[in-house]
Amino acid sequence: MMEFQGHPVKSITNNSIVIEWAIGNWCNFRCPYCFPDANTGTHLPPVVDDVLVENLKHLVKEIRSHSNDHIRWTLSGGEPTAQKKFSVLLETIQSIDKNSHVMLITNGTRPIAWWKKNVQYIKHMILSIHPESDTEHNVELIKLLADYDIKVSLSIMVGAQNFDQAVNSFKSFQFTSDPKYSLIHLKINRYRKMVTNLDFATLSNEQHMILDKLNKDHNNNKTTKFKTKADIPASLREPNFGAPARFTYTIDAGYEYDEVLNWYQGDKEKFKGNWVGYKCFAPSRSFHIDKSGKIGKLPCSIEFMNPLNIYNKDFKERYKYPTEPYICDKTYKDCNCAGVLEANKVL
After folding, report:
1. Contacts for 251 with CB less than 8 Å, ≥ 6 apart
2. pLDDT per residue over 125-181, tens digit each?
3. pLDDT at 244 over 70
């Protein structure tokens, strides 16, 4: 059983549904530090044809037959914008369901004219800056996204191989400390050692200190146009700022407490125990579509039997919304769906 500060946890709930979709594994960049199979090109982006559009409509219809909760589409790859009809996919997602938003993980290399046409379909973006990136292009893109109040995590990829270049790139984006760019979060992302990155070299202590100071100084200088949370317009609170998960725990002869869970602000350190035996609703709350189009893998890497493929013609006839929970057999550290709070769990 899970405990929060020594008290038994009865449930964790989240009023958002997550659809994570890896749109192929082809990328126009060949970053050696990227995670394995993200840019090998074995699965090209799918064709956005009538079959896929109808399958998406069916998927959302099935979800809506059981839940009205907000849907967050997380589109990644490879480079998801690489497919020629990606704009059609974005437009389709918006048109079939109004209570949803797209979070896009991208290197941002599409022309500015393309972004001007399609920025209306995006609410949240993770934009990565690499040695191959065009800084001038991305500065223009950031200014465009700010005009549309898009929430952006602007991540500068840095390693020993491109340290000076990355530092200069970071400095190029420090204009985002202006209040106009309150929703642009500039950060440094240090390389990891990967099997594809045989030339990996660790940063020196001095280099780590330089990066830490850059990051600290930028955050200290950053100002916001929203003085309090109450100043944030309703249109930006949801879905851009997310819906916090809630949990209930018992104390003092069964009295129940209901609290918002600040997972990324230290609350996770107050939990201990495990989720073994809890009813986990990941099958109906957290959908994963892999690079080949198969849908049904849980966040904790458990595969469903006979997963369906969202690119196939028979998907619409065969797919039904999963209503049965999975009985969790994972320890606390191995339970990814609870770790990112994408799945409800009930004791």
Report:
1. 7, 257
2. 999 999 999 999 999 999 999 999 999 999 999 988 889 999 999 999 999 999 999
3. no
Check pLDDT > 70 for residue 72: yes
Helices (H), the chain: 50-64, 86-96, 112-118, 135-147, 163-172, 205-221, 234-237, 282-285, 315-318, 336-339
On whether residue 141 sits in a domain, the answer given is: yes
Q: Which residue has the higher pLDDT, 227 or 317?
A: 317
Tell me how far apart the 2 most distant CA atoms of the chain are, in Å.
62
252 in a structural domain: no
Total structural domains within the chain? 1
| pLDDT the model gives residue 240 | 46
**160: CATH:** 3.20.20.70
| Neighbour-count burial of 29, counting CB atoms closer than 10 A to its CB (0-12 exposed, 13-18 middle, 19+ buried) | middle
CA dihedral over 102, 264, 275, 330, signed as positive or negative: positive
Taking the C-alpha atoms of 145, 181, 153 and 336 in order, what is their torsion angle to the nearest 10 degrees?
A: -110
For 252-262, write each residue's pLDDT tens digit: 666 777 777 66
Report yes or no on 203 lying in a domain: yes
Note whether residue 343 is domain-resident. no
Contact indicator for 184, 154 with CB cutoff of 8 Å? yes
Between CA 309 and CA 76 the distance in angstroms is: 17
The three-class DSSP label of residue 132 is coil
Total residue count of the chain as it appears in this document = 347
Q: What does the alpha-carbon distance between residue 152 and residue 32 come to, in Å, rounded to a whole number? A: 24
Range of the domain at 150: 17-237
